[in-house]
Amino acid sequence: MKRKIRLRDLFFLQCSVIIYTIAGVIGKFAARASMADSAWSFLALYGLEIAVLGVYAILWQQMIKKFDLSVAYANRAAALLWSLLWAVLIFGEPVTGKKILGVGLVVLGTAVVNAGKKGE
Hints:
Number of domains: 1
Shape: flat
Oligomer: single chain
Largest sheet: none
Structural class: mainly alpha
């Protein structure tokens, strides 16, 4: 049985999820940099993505020590929210009602899981 969930711990869990989504952003930049344009930038971006995923893996191991696995994975689903935010802010992708509804349901589900664990 893990200890009671603190807001600070949830903040750090979300920070690790944000780091995970940043790796995806770097991967998209790497995919845009074709090998024909500059092999070095392509390789550097993919290397950076692997390094960021390594940092995320270490942070994730620390998070699952603090949380029940069900809570940690429910919070990891918030990656959809962060990915949508990066898609809009960095890549200028459109936001549709379906995307907002889907992300809203995920955030609501995460809040329900976190609230349920606080009461136990």
